[in-house]
Fold:
Amino acid sequence: MTGQSSFDYLIVGAGFAGSVLAERLAKVGKRVLLIDRRPHVGGNAYDEIDAAGVLIHRYGPHIFHTNSDEVVAYLSQFTSWRPYEHRVLASVKGGLLAPIPINRTTLNLLYGANLETDEEAEAFLKRRAEPVARIETSEDVVVSAVGRELYETFFRGYTRKQWGIDPSQLDKSVTARVPTRTNLDDRYFTDKFQAMPAAGYTRMFERMLDHPGITVELGVDFAEVCDRVRFDELIFTGPIDEYFDHRFGRLPYRSLRFEHATLDQAWLQPVAVINHPDEAVSYTRVTEYKHLTGQSAPKTSVTYEHPCDEGDPYYPIPRPENQALFKRYEALALATPGVRFVGRLATYRYYNMDQVVGQALATFRRMQRLET
Structure:
């Protein structure tokens, strides 16, 4: 590409936020350059066939679920779907596999309780719940709902490994996302639409970006591209603090190290994901991908997740001082003309995939209104 290349939009980041906006803008006649420093599209949702012929997720399991008809209709232009309801077990008390989120089956397994109704399970949990005068932390949320024993069995060790911080020091929003059930529903999610892209996420992204108005450049950095192309507007989906050269310091993230393995056996575990709350185990969860994809293969491929401080930014750490730092960057962003900040990293928030798609579609609608 020469220095004379000119585009209506330069979009930094080829994950959900950047790719959805590239597709929408190209559809209305805009010329878009979409770049990513990684050598592939799809962001963290990128999947690929490994040496064993199994479709794996390079950056850990991505399970699609949503209540948004708009998001389903949009993505269905680029993929067909394989129905899939996600189930997770936790390995506790020396290897007992119990459903998580906690449900009536979990309680019966752990305590031999023989609870037969929702009401009995609710009363059982109430007897164990410990009153907390003011719910402020993740520990408060769980202890007040299910008591200290279940908190220590399922949550404390897992949270300490995942975040590198004790739940007593973490914002209540971290565990507020995790429900506790009194029925026998063992699905991890309860959204009305739960499915996996039939040919994988990468294929869905490739179809999304297959438009003559979109130029995709991979393995390139924003700074080098800026020097050799002209563009009217910028959409930035990378870390907001990075855009501003970490002027106020780095926004803290928790990262992950993925240990991928192929095992010479057909299956390893009964469900796609098993959580390991025990702090003596270095990883937080193990994913077996054939459960997600429905593939048949003589070998099985799995991923062990090891949380860490250094590496790609995955999870914003929800503490008040971090949010205050983000607000300083957000004020800079709002005062920067010609640049839109969209997506997880640019808004320092943990979004599910459908939420990022929804945010990108809403951003496009606002841009269209401004043009009319």
